[in-house]
Amino acid sequence: MSDMREFRPGADPSSRLPPRSGDDGVAGALPPQAGRGDEASAYNFAYLDEGTKRMIRRALLKAVAVPGYQVPFASREMPMPYGWGTGGVQVTAAILGRSDVLKVIDQGADDTTNAVSIRRFFAKTAGVATTTHTAEASVIQTRHRIPERPLTENQTLVYQVPIPEPLRFLEPRETETRQMHALAEYGLMHVKLYEDISRHGHIATTYAYPVEVAGRYVMDPSPTPKFDNPKMDDCPALQLFGAGRERRIYAVPPYTKVRSLDFEDHPFRVQRFDQPCALCAAEGVYLDEMLMDDSGRRMFICSDTDHCEERRAAGHVGTEGVA
Amino acid sequence: MYVAVKGGEAAIDNAHRLLAEVRRGDPAVPELTVAQIREQMALLVDRVMAEGSLNDPDLAALALKQARGDVVEAVFLVRAFRTTLPRFGASVPLDTGRMTLSRRISATFKDLPGGQVLGPTFDYTHRLVDFALAAEGAPEPAAEAEPREDAAATPRVTDLLGRDGLIEPSPPDDGSPLGDITREPVDFPCDRATRLQALARGDEGFILALGYATQRGYGRTHPFVGEVRVGTVAVEFVPEELGFPVPLGAVQATECQMVNQFHGSRTVPPQFTRGYGLVFGQSERKAMAMALVDRALRAGELGEPLASPAQDQEFVLAHCDSLQATGFVEHLKLPHYVDFQAELELVRRMRAEFEDRREVAE
User: Fold this and answer.
1) Could you point out which of A24, A62, A299, B181 has its C-alpha 20 to 30 Å from the C-alpha of B87?
2) With contact defined as beta carbons under 8 Å apart, do A18 and A53 qualify?
3) B358 touches chain A (CB under 8 A)
4) What is the per-residue pLDDT for A39?
5) What integer pLDDT is reported at residue B220 of this predicted model?
6) Where does the pLDDT of residue B12 fall: very low under 50, low under 70, confident under 90, or very high at 90 and above?
7) Domain edge (last residue) among B24, B56, B82
8) Which residue of the set A88, A108, A302, A318 is catalytic?
């Protein structure tokens, strides 16, 4: 009803929202996307209002204090869909400062559509500097990968998480899984891994491989390939995890023990690739498989595009690379 | 060759420009105005407001225009706008007994105080395509009724039943603070008020299917439509500095009071139970389905056996939101190559081991 609008307050004292342009009339009801000139200034720094950021920061503090524990938070609707990284985006929005340098990757790459979209979102709403270089970034938001270059104490890695509950596919009920975590009742997970071994000869979990954090909580590392799990252990960088649709935040503080679940006779092992990157000849990195033609010719190249580019710039040349 | 498989900023920009062009359609056809959508696609606008949890017909109409008529996409636009609005308090509970009615029907009593008001409804129309509508022309004017003398208040059917104790009383307002599912994470198990909030913004199709399932035996509740009413109702707010309610305006809403299966025990005489639905705008389907699901979700509280999805609050509430559902389903379009690579590597290794074993056996 149009008469409701007159009661929309110009400024809420509990928040530090800048006034919206045209807050006094019908135009104020139209979202800034509607083509009014100055889009970015209609929203607070990094999009979220300060009250929401404070709520998220509180959840983050609790998450850091209890490593691996999933803290419920009042996730907001964001202007990108659930499943596109709304949890990560909210965490990033809550921790971003004006002097931060942001890098966003998806599948290890800076130039995939969703990474481009999220990077632009923060460039527009926060005006922060962005980079594709891992070494230059102070905040790195990621989907499905951890950069190959070791992270430092000055960096924060923000993961986008689809299903934060590592026990979810063993027990669909939140009321049950919460109790299992409270009692550290993780037998079901070990049984699942054991059944994999008895059926396939291997633990058949290749990504989102469960980890134990600081000797207590079993945690989902987000759907990173298990190749990346060892990078989480004793990592100098702060690792934050945001699950928007599922409304959970969790964290691994710097230098925390992160152990991939395994058995004495079936120790945890990461994927190995038979050949180096075809472009930069890197070994011991995670590779993407490219189909080259109809006859099934393939090429394996670095999943981490920045790592690959830096190596090529340093003169490393793979079989398909250009010197 | 390798650049081709990666997305690019230029490609994204071009995709958005193409979307804008396709949204507009044939430029030879006049462009829709927001007012046209608001006035002539009113039920669609109502649905977007209900699931978008924001009472703003102009905004909902604009969202529909921007979304090319995709309901979930329009709901998404409205929700993303809503989430940035400051929250300054909760209104006084709507007094739907004092609603200005455009429609009010009861299936439990042939006549009742306030009468049956058919209002604008498809219910008794023959669903024959009206080809005359393809041409322009004003409809025959609607008949005018004399204003009713008792229009100030039309008692709800459940109030009439309640006077004789035939239906369980609506729990009184105990003054405890209201939850807000948009400001606090849902904590299972959750109370009825929280469940109703989630159902009110839940996807109409999903709630409809669940309500339908309860009628077919998956959580049966023996429902009767005590009453469905549609109309406008005043929204009042108590500013702290005044201490008394002031009207903020009025909203259109649809309310359904479902009268269900009776209960009783040695200490409590038998009485009917309630299911409740309330949505923005005119949406009887949604309000009724919501009332069915609300009642089904009370199974635990009423000591009924829990056997069906509609009675399972984690199942219903975790999956009723169309934005969450569409987001997670559609995110499968996003690249997953690193995870798929991990699976490929394992399957190849297991296939190699399988071949090795077979060779050894031969």
Assistant:
1) A62
2) no
3) no
4) 53
5) 87
6) confident
7) B82
8) A302
Cα gap B109→B227, rounded to integer Å = 9
Residue B45, domain extent: 9-82
- Shortest distance between the Cα of A31 and any Cα of chain B, in A, equals 6
Q: A295 CA to chain B: closest CA distance, Å?
A: 16
Residues B49 and B106 in one domain: no
Judge whether A308 counts as a catalytic residue.
Answer: yes
Q: Would an 8 Å CB–CB cutoff place B35 in contact with chain A?
A: no
pLDDT > 70? residue A9: no
Report the percent of chain B where pLDDT is more than 70: 96
Determine contact: B56 vs chain A, CB below 8 A: yes
Record: contact B1-A292, CB cut-off 8 A: yes
Q: How far apart are CA B303 and CA B299, in angstroms?
A: 6
Q: What is the ipTM metric for this complex?
A: 0.79
Instruction: Compute the average pLDDT of residues A127-146.
Output: 96
By C-alpha distance, the chain A residue nearest B86 is A12
pLDDT of residue B273 exceeding 50, the answer is yes
Q: Which two tokens stand for residue B279?
A: 């949505």
Cα gap B123→B105, rounded to integer Å: 12
Residues B48 and B103 reside in one and the same domain: no
Residue A235 falls in the annotated catalytic set? no
Query: Which of A244-253, B36-45, B93-102, B198-207 comes out lowest in average pLDDT?
Result: B93-102
Distance CA B128, CA B260 (A): 34
Give the distance from CA B159 to its chain's centroid: 25
Name the catalytic one among A68, A85, A87, A242.
A68
- B324 at the A interface (CB within 8 A)? yes
Which of A3, A76, A80, A82 is most worth mutating to test chain B (most B CB atoms within 10 A of its CB)?
A82
Asked if residue B132 has pLDDT above 90, the reply is no
Number of domains forming the structure of chain B:
2
User: Do B335 and A114 lie within an 8 Å CB cutoff?
Assistant: yes
- pLDDT above 70: residue A14: no
* CA distances for B201 relative to A72, B49, B79, B357, angstroms: 21, 9, 10, 56
Classify residue A291 by burial, with Cβ atoms within 10 Å: 0-12, 13-18, 19+. exposed
The yes-or-no verdict on residue A297 having pLDDT over 90 is no
Q: Which band of pLDDT confidence, cut at 50, 70 and 90, is reported for residue A112?
A: confident
A-chain CB neighbours of B235 within 8 Å are 4
Owner of token pair 């008949």: B143
My answer on whether B107 and B247 are in the same domain is: yes
Task: Give the count of beta carbons closer than 10 Å to the beta carbon of residue A178.
Answer: 16
Provide, as residue numbers in chain B, all residues whose Cβ is less than 8 Å from the Cβ of A208.
339
Does residue B314 sit within a domain? yes
- High-pLDDT (> 70) share of chain A, %: 87
Identify the H or E element spanning A291: strand A287-291
Inter-chain CB proximity A81 and B326 less than 8 Å: yes
